Structures are given as structure tokens and as C-alpha cells.
Amino acid sequence: xxxxxxxxxxxxxxxxxxxxxxxxxxxxxxxxxxxxxxxxxxxxxxxxxxxxxxxxxxxxxxxxxxxxxxxxxxxxxxxxxxxxxxxxxxxxxxxxxxxxxxxxxxxxxxxxxxxxxxxxxxxxxxxxxxxxxxxxxxxxxxxxxxxxxxxxxxxxxxxxxxxxxxxxxxxxxxxxxxxxxxxxxxxxxxxxxxxxxxxxxxxxxxxxxxxxxxxxxxxxxxxxxxxxxxxxxxxxxxxxxxxxxxxxxxxxxxxxxxxxxxxxxxxxxxxxxxxxxxxxxxxxxxxxxxxxxxxxxxxxxxxxxxxxxxxxxxxxxxxxxxxxxxxxxxxxxxxxxxxxxxxxxxxxxxxxxxxxxxxxxxxxxxxxxxxxxxxxxxxxxxxxxxxxxxxxxxxxxxxxxxxxxxxxxxxxxxxxxxxxxxxxxxxxxxxxxxxxxxxxxxxxxxxxxxxxxxxxxxxxxxxxxxxxxxxxxxxxxxxxxxxxxxxxxxxxxxxxxxxxxxxxxxxxxxxxxxxx
Length: 516
Hints:
The chain is built from 12 helices and 4 strands; from the N terminus they run H-H-H-H-E-E-H-H-H-H-H-H-E-E-H-H. By secondary structure, the chain is an alpha+beta fold.
């Protein structure tokens, strides 16, 4: 079929270069333009060189969802920061352990005085006058009893576990984001194919209308309407292309790899893998039996009437029983990392209360000292000193501090109560999140089945409209309506498939089954 004149003319203007005038000399490039071209070439070569090692390590040509998850778990910056936070918490725990272990220190002092000073030899009971004093102490100290160290160690141990759960929560959120971004890219790739096919359908109608105009059976007004329909479809195509580009950029940002690698990403999957997920397959079959959806046959008017009459049943969860909902809640109670972190934070607050109560008790430590003249300055210079061994126990006890400790204990108890309330609040939020997620999952299943049936009907209607248009039995406007309805139905099915997968992975995220 011949292409429209306006289309060929536009293509000629956009693609064909202007013919050069042989009598007009082309101006030579300036030094600045030459430098810009060289810099651009160097930048391009550098980017290729920098990306070459990354391309060798990453398989982006046929990227599966599992492969994307593995890349994100290795390169995502938020997860890497969370891992470093876990390492820091483990080191703080080790520091708390080290505070219980012996410490060995050496201290030497030399003092020069303008006037002679009286020095006392501790071990020989001799007094000397001298301008200079010396001291050398090698000491081993060991805590014997300290509530600060005892409860501090327990608190740091709990804080390390809290940080590990926070890392698991970051992983849980990352997996959800990767799955959403992955299938969002697939969503717009499929939408782009739909818009391209829609342009082809409308272009066919335009060619038919142009032929009727040439034969004198149509008016320019009808042809212009077809041109507007094609132009609108092209605009929609470019809008979808922009959304696809944004989705790919968000996807590569979630993966955590170099944005220069974005053009190298090609998804392995070309359709939404709903049937490959056992839970969805079983529930869709149950829903199909309940609502009598028949996507493989042409539905009757009675079928649609049944769907309308059964809308009231959609207000309640029909696919998930109370026991199934409770199973999801039990999973979240035992696996959801942020909830487990809040639970441990209650334990941290409890240890903080014990630490404050422990300030009422004394602190006991022991030491072994190998020194010259004990802790006092002597008159013998270094390398001529005689060392003596001594040992002792130190007890320190704060007997009264004007009610300071009482107020600290009250504050710690209030913080513990606040932690318990925060835990209850988090659990209620997660419970509502799971219930909403299950309802959204069921709603997505209903929309998916309905949209699948709508696509089947729309495809039948478009084929019938195409045949009638070919024989001139309907106007091009009616054909365009059928084409637009088909595109709308396919986009709705595409979106419903994405929403169904997103709802499924949202429920998995809410229960925390992937955070282990």
C-alpha cells in the first residue's frame, strides 16, 4: 500500500540531508570546534575503557530477575552501607568485651625543678633533695565488678543483633525494589510494543481513508481525522518511550552499578511470569471457578451480568481464609526483620534501666604494678632504677549525688515504656500492611482476569472491524474506536499483570520471607 503523501514528505524532511551548493564553500572548523571534537572522542573512549571491566563481570545481555537480585545484593550502595553498619556494631560489641579483659600500660615521667624539692623513696623510706624527679610504672589492671561494664556488654550484644536485623530489613526492601523496577521496565517495554502496533493499525486505517479520498468516496475531513489519530498515537508512543527510559534509569540505580551500563541491559523475560508462581496459579484458578471467568471463549451478555451481580462479594477476602491470613501474620511475627529489631530495642532499653540501677552499687577493680618508687617521683634516673612489685584492689562508691541517679533511672524506665509502645505500634502497622496487601493481591487477580477477558473481546472486535472497513461497511471512525479499545484493553491487561506481581512481592516483603 502506498504511504500517505504527508508522511513521505515529513520523512524526506527529517531524514534526507540538504543538497550542498557546489558554488558555496563550506567554512573550515575553528580551533575551538576541533578541540571540542577531540575532547568528546577522548571522553567516549575513556567511558568505553572504564565500562569494559564491568561488562566483563556482569551479565547484562539476558538479565533475569534472579541475576538482577544477585547484582543488587553485591553492588547496591544502601545495602553496602548497612553491612558496614553491622560490622561497626560487631566491633562495638568486641570493644565491650575488651573492657572486661586485663589492660597493661606503661607510664614514665621526668620533672625538672628550678629549686630543689624533697623526694621520698617509698620502698626504702629515704628522703632526698633534688632538682629532678623520675617515675616509671608498668601496671596491669583488671575490672572485678562493674555494672556499667556488665550491662554495657549485654546492651552492645543486643545492639549488634538489632543492626543485623536492620541489615536484613535493608535487604528485604532492596529485593522488593529490584523486583518492582525489573517488572516496571518490562511493563513499559510491552506497552511500547502495544503503542507501535496501535500506530500500525491506525496507519492502515489512514491508508484506507486516503484511498477512498482518491476514489471520491471520502472527504478531506475524514482523512484529517485519521491523521490526527495517527499523530496522537505517535505522541503516546514517545511518552511511553520516556517512561521506559525513566524506568531503566531507576532500575540501574537500584542495582547500584554504573549508569553508563544502562544501554547494555536487556531483560531475559518478555512476559509477566504469573503462571510460573504456584500461589498465583492456584488462587487464579480458584477465582476463575468462583466468578466463572472464561478467557478462552467469547463471553455472553449473561456472563457480564453475573460479574456485575457478584461485585458485592469483592468487598471481602474470598480467596484467603482467616487461617491463611493468620499464617501470614505469624510469618511476619517471626521473620519480619524491622519488627524483630524493634523487639530487641525493648531489650536494649531494659538493659539501659539495669545500667542506671547499677550506679547505686560500687565498682571494684584490681591491679598489679611493677614500678620504681610506686606512683611517686624518685631521684634515680632512668636505667638506674630498682623496680618493685605491688598489687591492690580499688573500690569506688558514689554514696550521694543529690537525686541524680533517681532521675536517670526514671528517664530510662520511660524510654523502656516508649520502646514497648513503639514495638506494639510497629506490629499493628505490619498487620494492617499484610491485610491490605492480601486484599490488593485479590483485587489485582480480579482485575487481571477481567482485563484478560477484555483483551479477548477487543481482539475479536478489531478483527471484525478490519474486515468491515475493508469492504466499506463501517466508517473509519468506528474502526479507530475498536483499535483504541484494543490498545486500552491490552494496556490494562499489561498493567494488571504488573500490579498482580507487585502485590505478590509486596506480601512477601510484608511477611519478611526473603530477608533470611
